[in-house]
Each structure stands twice: as structure tokens, then as C-alpha cells.
Amino acid sequence: MRMALGSDHGGVNIKNAVIKYLEEKNIVYKDFGCYDDNSVDYPVYAYKTAKEVSDGNYDLGILCCGTGIGISIAANKVKGIRAAVVTDEFSAEMTRRHNNANILCMGGRVIDEKQAVKLAEIFINTPFDVEERHLRRLKMIDEIEKETFSI
Ligand code: RB5
Known about the structure:
Blueprint: E1 2-7, H1 12-24, E2 28-31, H2 42-54, E3 60-65, H3 69-75, E4 83-85, H4 89-97, E5 103-107, H5 113-125, H6 132-149
Parallel strand pairs: 1-2, 1-3, 3-5, 4-5
Helix pairs in contact: 1-5, 2-3, 4-5
């Protein structure tokens, strides 16, 4: 499992907590910034991180900003990215099982470090349910993406 991580200043606290967890578990990761709490623009880090996942250089991504929302909106503009904002354990599991989400987004002003680590752990360890109905729906999303990118 190779993980790509990114955040803005609003999410750097929970990203660092997740990084500590990844190091403890010997999970390969790269942090694409930012690296402190100086104010930055989240689309920069969303794009850097999401592009690495989209290009297949990393298996999954984790993006954090103040709410998780801005950084997820930006990440979802990158081809092949299914980024989901999650605050609870059930959604962390289901977004892997049903949506095959490849980027988990969380908000450093919404959840605490302990919850961020818990959600990251669930996200990383839950496989996609390879079932016809989920594949069909994801294919429908791919079709929307193809049409949008061809404009
Ligand atoms: C930055 O202040 C904040 O707007 C950002 O972290 C994020 O919450 C946007 O969605």
C-alpha cells in the first residue's frame, strides 16, 4: 500500500497525526505538503496529491483542510479521482466498499487527531466490494467524467 498525503494549513494537524500512524505501521507514504500552519491555498495541495494517485504512483490518498470540503472539491476535478469527505467510521468504510473512493478527505477543524487516525485506518484497510451494481455505478461516473473532459 502506497499512500499520498496532502493538506493545507487547516488540515496539517490531523495529517501529521495520520503520518505518525503510517510510520508506526510501516506503510509507505509521501507527504506532498503543506508542512506547517502558514496560510496556503488548498487547491495546490489537492492537485499535487490527487495527480499522483490518478497517475498510479500511489494506491490511495488522504487530503486534509479545515473542513475537508474545499480540498475534496479540488481533488475531484482530477481525472480518475473519487474523493470523499468523511467524519464518521461508517462512511469511511462504505466509501471504500461501495464508491471505491481513492482519496479520503477530512477536516482539521471538524474532527480531532484521534478520529482522523481511526478514519484513515478504516479507509486504508477496507477493500472495494467488487459487485456488479457498484461497478455499474462507477462506470456511470466514468462516463460523466469522459464527457466532461472532452469538452
Ligand atoms: C482555510 O481557511 C479553509 O477555508 C480551508 O482549510 C478549507 O476548510 C476549505 O474548504
